[in-house]
Structure formats: structure tokens, C-alpha cells
Amino acid sequence: MLKAHQLSFQFSPGVPLLQAASLTLSAGQWVGISGDSGAGKSTLGKLLAGYLAPQAGSVTLDGAALPKSGVQPVQWLPQSPELAVNPRWRVAKILREAWTPSNAQCQAFGLQEKWLSRLPQSLSGGELQRVCVLRALAPEVRFLVADEISTMLDPITQVELWQALKQEAAQRQLGVLVISHDSALLERLCPQRFHLSGGQLTPW
Ligand SMILES: Nc1ncnc2c1ncn2[C@@H]1O[C@H](COP(=O)(O)OP(=O)(O)OP(=O)(O)O)[C@@H](O)[C@H]1O
């Protein structure tokens, strides 16, 4: 179980972003987070994945702190995949950085063989996003923070990406936190949803 307990965080002194916010994500559970631009959704996601450390409160995985080395069991997937890859690596190397997905998994996420020998900047944002999502699904990974990951995809590719992720998550009992401005998407994907405002999470 991934647990955020009474997290408080601020970038600037006197400007609190999160104020004692708590959230629990169990294996296989899908939870949605909405909130206005600047409310702190990505910051919450980064705290949960260990990219940032809270100033108060804690993030634990099965009662222990997140590991400091090795494949991170909580993966944060950002909206802009081009910022999350080495621009000098070919797509094949990027995809297989932590593990080697099967052909069936590549197919399920709509990856094309011809992309593998190319540099990431020659893929569209949506193509590269699919590579990055699959790259993040190493066997050690147990929770995903999907931060606006389908915003740049066309509607059909969006549906395909979420279907592939749903299937993978169900098979492996991955817990998924979906961050989005799209309330219809959150309603469709996540039985449990929270709105982040004023540093607090409110169920909706
Ligand atoms: N590294 C940083 N240093 C200083 N301020 C930051 C930093 N990162 C984010 N912020 C500020 O913290 C606030 C929350 O940012 P965050 O990205 O978490 O919001 P968000 O809810 O995800 O917004 P959006 O929906 O627009 O992506 C914003 O006002 C942002 O400018």
C-alpha cells in the first residue's frame, strides 16, 4: 500500500501548497486527482514518487520509506515525455532502459518496430508518450502516477493507451493515480476521486 500521511509542502516560505494532505493507494486501485492549474497536483505526484521530499508528513510503501536506489516501485509519468528521455539515445535503448517489454506488450501500447532505431525527437509527442509509459512498467514497479499523460493524444490513441494500461494494471495489480483536468476521463477510469484545492484533498 502506498500511503501519503499528512503531507505538507511549499516551494516558497509562507506559501503553503499542500497542507496535511493524506491519500492511500492500494494494489490494483485507480484513484483520480483533479484541481485547478497550480493547485499542486504534479507536486503531490512527485512527492508520492520520491522526486520531492515533504517538509512534514511522510510517504511510505508498505510502511517503509521509498527505496533510494534501484528501480523505483512508484513511477511518475509526466505530461511531456520529451523532457524525460535522453535525446541522444535511440528509442530502443530508451524503451529498454530498465527492462525489456514483450512483443505483445509493445503491440498493446501501439509501439511500431520502425520507431526503435530513431531518435526520440523524431517521434510525435503521443508516440513518445507511449514509449515512456511502457518503459515505466518494469516488473518491480507497483504504483504509477499518471500526470496528464494522455493530454497530447488524439481520442482514439487515448482510448488505446488507457485500455493497454488498464489491462497491464489488472494483470499485475498495479495501483494507479491519475492526475487530470478532464473530469469525464477521471470518472471513467477512477472509482475514487479527489479534488485538490487549498492544499487539501476533497472526495468527489
Ligand atoms: N520547482 C519549483 N519551484 C518553485 N515553484 C514551483 C516549482 N514547481 C512548481 N512550482 C509552483 O507550485 C505550484 C504548483 O505546481 P504544480 O505543477 O504542482 O501544479 P499543478 O496543479 O500540477 O498545475 P497544472 O494543472 O497547471 O499542471 C505552481 O504555482 C508552480 O508555479
Automatic annotation (TrEMBL):
UniProt entry tagged with the keyword Magnesium: no
Keyword flag Transport: yes
Keywords per UniProt: ATP-binding, Nucleotide-binding, Transport
Superkingdom: Bacteria
Family per record: Belongs to the ABC transporter superfamily.
InterPro entries: AAA+_ATPase, ABC_transp_ATP-bind, ABC_transporter-like_ATP-bd, ABC_transporter-like_CS, P-loop_NTPase
TM region positions: none
A family per Pfam: ABC_tran
Species for this entry: Vreelandella neptunia
A molecular-function term among this protein's GO annotations: ATP binding
UniProt protein name: ATP-binding cassette domain-containing protein
Domain ABC transporter: 2-204
